[in-house]
Amino acid sequence: MMFLGTALVLLFSDPMVDVLSEVGARTGIPAFYVSFVVAPLASNASELIAA
């Protein structure tokens, strides 16, 4: 299971970084803000809505 999880992270992390970089470039939001504010909020959106 650990190997499978690691493989999934390796598979999906590079496209995710590319998408976040593209979002920052298209919207004019600095990459730091996208990485440390927008991405965590998006990943926890379901928890924020449910609370």
TrEMBL record:
Primary subcellular site in the record, as a coarse category: membrane
Sodium/calcium exchanger membrane region domain: residues covered: 2-51
Signal peptide range: 1-19
Family matches, as Pfam families: Na_Ca_ex
The keyword Transmembrane is annotated on this UniProt entry: yes
UniProt xrefs under InterPro entries: NaCa_Exmemb
Topology class, membrane: Multi-pass membrane protein
Designated name of the protein: Sodium/calcium exchanger membrane region domain-containing protein
